[in-house]
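Priority: low. Protein: 5-carboxymethyl-2-hydroxymuconate isomerase. Input follows.
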Amino acid sequence: METVLAPPPPVLLPISGSPVGFPVRRVYCVGRNYAAHAIEMGHDPEREPPFFFQKNPDNLLPPGQDFPYPPLSSDVHHEVELIVAMRGGGADIPVQEAPDHIFGYGVGIDFTRRDLQAEAKKAGKPWTAAKAFEHSAPVSAIAPVTAVGHPANGNIWLKVNGELRQQGDLGQMIWKVPEIIAELSRMFTLAPGDVIMTGTPSGVGPVVRGDVVTCGIDGVAALSVKVI
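Result:
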């Protein structure tokens, strides 16, 4: 069928060591998935069922681009996260089969308009304006499973202007990646091209224009982005 408007171009993420891109379908995010971060945000770190929110595919900012500080906020926080890129999908995926659906991994930053999020929480409203704004998720190239395996442990870190702000280990995730996929697939039908942001360790904090934010997951990926 012809379209009345030109369809938007696909959102493509680079793949390490490959000339082809990874096409993004949806972006799912896991909230409060590290106990220390749950505590610093004022919540009980007990292993309650995970909760999810979404960003839009075109909120992803590929590597090599600057992050423009968003309007309507004076308190934008960094949150470094492991990124999971899906090559398969389905509904009600068993935990033990979840790794078979993963194409690869990367590192990303869930930038959050914390002041807008606080207002939304207080009013019992959705977080969309705080989370799903333009360029709110800088991401690295995707490292295929064939190159990095399935990292269950490993140092995850973030620095601002060379100062260490966040550091943790993937093994500290309350809900592990296969469990996240299984739980998410109970609520949504996952598909190739879906991207999952798996939560952040403690140490989240503000950025300002001019900051250079670097982050990484040892043995997986690294990323650097300037706030403009």
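The chain has one domain: 16-226. The domain at 16-226 is CATH 3.90.850.10 (Fumarylacetoacetate hydrolase; domain 2).
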